[in-house]
Amino acid sequence: xxxxxxxxxxxxxxxxxxxxxxxxxxxxxxxxxxxxxxxxxxxxxxxxxxxxxxxxxxxxxxxxxxxxxxxxxxxxxxxxxxxxxxxxxxxxxxxxxxxxxxxxxxxxxxxxxxxxxxxxxxxxxxxxxxxxxxxxx
Length: 137
What we know:
Elements (H helix, E strand, L loop, with lengths): L6 H6 E6 L3 E6 L6 E6 L12 H22 L3 E5 L10 E6 L21 H15 L4
Antiparallel strand pairs: 1-2, 2-3, 3-5, 4-5
């Protein structure tokens, strides 16, 4: 069966490209540099269902995105989470945080509503991420 991205992720995010294991998404929320990694494995729900080799690739991809958020977005702290309560498809949030951000020091979930996305801001963030990941711009 072919991999299909969950409709909520498709609606809430801009797709940036594919790494070895994961599709890289940028959340449409001006408040945070918020990347989501989705392993391209159909019907995968939880991290513990990944074979060890793929789990190691996922960790490497999380590490790579975390470093980009620190280097290129000057994130002060990186939050990494895989909840899956609203979207059952395994996906990992990698979020750059700042002491001045809208949700600090709490989690980003349920911290108000996503601010209207300025398309030029999303495009700049997407461009920075695509360039850092070696994706076509």
